[in-house]
Each structure stands twice: as structure tokens, then as C-alpha cells.
Amino acid sequence: MRIALALIAIALFAQDEGAAVLQGIVRNSQGQPVSGTAVHLTNAGKTLTAVTDSKGTYSFRALHAGTYTLRSGDVEMGPFTVAQGEARNVDLTIGSSAKAQFFDQPTFIVAGVTDPAARGGHGSDPVYRSAESLTKEAASLRTDGTARKAGGADLHHALADKDENQGNSLDAVREYQRAAELDISEANLFDWAVELLKHRAADQSAEIFVRANRLYPRSTRILLGLAVALYARGSNDQARQRFFEAADLNPDDPIPYLFLGKLPEGVITESAGFEERMERFAQRLPENPQANYYYAASLWKRRQGDPATTARVQSLLEKAVHLDPHFGAAFLLLGTVLAEQGKLPEAISAYQHAIAAGPPTADAHYRLAQVWRRTGEAAKARHEIEIYRQLSQQSALTSERERSDIQEFVFSLRNPE
What we know:
Blueprint: H1 2-15, E1 20-27, E2 38-43, E3 46-51, E4 57-63, E5 66-72, E6 75-82, E7 87-89, E8 92-93, E9 108-113, H2 126-139, H3 152-165, H4 169-182, H5 186-198, H6 202-215, H7 220-232, H8 236-249, H9 254-261, H10 274-284, H11 289-300, H12 307-323, H13 328-340, H14 344-357, H15 362-374, H16 378-405, E10 409-413
Parallel strand pairs: 1-7, 1-8
Antiparallel strand pairs: 1-4, 2-3, 2-5, 5-6, 9-10
């Protein structure tokens, strides 16, 4: 009997070679390991429990890929995604005073700002451009300062807003930091971290977002801000994980999906789980034009000449533009889908709708020119190419001007060794 059980155990172990591991340390608010405390891990309504050892360590092994929630004492973290074969470390701080122990001081000091004239350009890097675009999206999630009070942390936050509006970025970031130190709220931490991110301090922004995520694991915008900071510094695997966690936190919230949809083709959009979340977006919000568009875009990337996939993409895009007749991006992709099928008159109409929807995009004029050329309309093709060149030049100049206006922070270590 024992031999049989052993053989079964070996067989199960062999099947779980790609299983995930979740482990970490539970500490109290003074940073000391807590032994003998229960840690609960929940997935799909089922809960596993581990007890910390003398060093405060817990471990869950042979986990399947999925979305989990972790809880111990008064602290809950998640939901977060665990990938197949991943070995993930999650430390927990329990106790009513945990929030006060968030940090004494950050590891860095904002020492000054760079001279914009001395910086090199990165305008041709698509990842760099997309990181800037996502940073603007993250900044749009900032707290509305109109509801703030007149004293304490709120006063520092109001001063920070004023300094930022006046272009005094160095004073602004210091005021945001002071507000967060006086009141360690989700809003103050987010605004401080996103201010760092706006000024291309991705590493420092990520440091604050990581700590904020420990305190507020159910804050979607904290997760998104962390994902953008990680993406901006080139940590694509970690960024993907955080983007996915944000989308999984509240599957009916469209904002995380919109961030995912704005990512350029690459490591994250081609990874397992991306299309799944775009499909879920469309299924849960079927009357949302952006949900239909982004799912169509994710399918289009992997169509590989499959007629059924192409038909599905076209159907989703037609629904998107029906729901929003001014959805330029959806008309643009619809034109591309139609042109690839040789439906040139329909493609021309779609591109013209994309241009009319505005603001004018160079890509729409370029693609329209290609279709005019295929139909033998050389003069119309030349006209569209000329507009394409003008818009491309204007866009490049605008991007370079905006880029040169950003003050980048200079940092030093708080306690250099």
C-alpha cells in the first residue's frame, strides 16, 4: 500500500513540474517575523492554508496558474495573477500599525532637474513614445484637488498642484512627497508616484508604487501606475503581471483594458493572457465600442490568413463604429481589414470616415493613398501622401517640443554607502 501511495505521489509530482510556487514572510508592524500565524490563499472559491514557521515563512507549492487572493490577520492582498511555473515571493505585514510603518524615508532624494538642452532624444523609439502616452493616461487618473481641505497634508498637496501648474516641477514633487508623508493615503501616494513618473523617474516612481500597492492592494490605479512605471523602465514581464492584475481586480472596470489596448505590439501583447483579457472585455461590456475594437485588434494580430478570424474581426469593428460613429481608430482598422480582402470601395469609405472623425492622423491618409493607388487613382494617391507627410512632420515637431519641455529629475541616494 505504501509503495502504491509513493508511486502515486511521484506521478502527481511529475505532472506538476510546471506548477507555480507562492511564498514569503509574514512580519508585524515592527518588521519582526511572525511565527505560527495562518496564511490563507484563495482561488476560484477554494482556500488553502499554510502556517508560518519560526522564521515567519510560509509556502504554497504545486499551484496552478490562475488568479489568487492572499490573506493573513488583518491584511489581504490581491487578486493577483500567478503564471505557470512562476516562483513568486509575497511578503505580508500584519497589525493595526502596519500603515504607519509604510516607510520612514524613500531611498532617494530629488536633488534637482536636468537641463533640457543637454538631453538626447528618444523620439524615434516606439516603446519610449508608448511609455510617454501611458504616463499621460496614468496622470489622468490623479486625484481631483478641488475636494481637498486647507491644512496639513491637503495644504501641501494644494501647493504641489499650484507649483506643477506653474512649471515648478522640483517644488511640486517635494510638496507631493510631504503630503504623502503626513497622510499616507492612497490618493497622496498615487499623486506623488505619478508626478515622479511624469518626469521620467521610472525607477523612483516604481519604488513608491510598490510600497503603495502593499498598503492598497485593491487600488486599480496604483496597480496601473506601477505597471506603467515598470514598462517605462523596460521591465516588461513585471509590467505585464501588474497590467493583468489590474484587469483582474474588477473585470467590469474598463480602464485597465484601455491601458492594455494602448500597448504597442511586443512582449506584453503577444503573451499568454492578453487576448483572453481583451475577449473578456468584449464579453462583459458588449455595448462598449472600445471593448469591441480592442478585442478585434488583438484577434487581427494573430489572424494568419484565417477567413473565420478575419470575419470575426470585421464584425467586431462594424459593431464598434455602429456604437460610436466617430470612432476614428476603429474605422482605420476596419479599412485595413477591408483592403486586405480586396474590398477597395468599402475600404476607401472606412478610411474617409476615420479621417473625418478627427483629429487627423497621418496613418489614415497613408493607407487611403495606398488604396487609391490600387484603384488607379494616382492623383488622389499623391494628394493623400502629401497630407501624410505634412501631418507626420507636424506630429514629430509637437512630440519633440513636448518632450523638451519635460523637466527630468536628478536624484541622489539618501544614505549612500
